[in-house]
Amino acid sequence: MSHSGPGSLPTDFYAFPIETVSQSVEGFELVHQSVAVQPHWRFVVDSSGVWTVEMRLELETAVARQRDIEAHAFLKDAARCWSANWHRSRNRKVVQQNRVRNESKAQLALQAVDRLRSAP
Prior knowledge:
2 domains; three-stranded antiparallel β-sheet; rod-shaped
């Protein structure tokens, strides 16, 4: 990556990742945190011994904003789906528990009827 414009000196950029290592349940994991971007000039000092440069940085954030909006929408949908699935799963468990209870009660009732029939 390099840049030069009218009246500016040619510029090179060094870019390197900022990463951390964290421990998870699966072991050690390399986590990408950001990217460091450092400008670099090759220069020769003039006879006065002074070197100057003017740097102007402009960032367009429209793409990042759009990604952020899409990410929030995705996470909101994912949370809604997770919540619905959890409630559905929870309801299934309750229904299953009630079915087991009802079957147990039915078996107890049948046993009681059998005992009554076999009683003298």
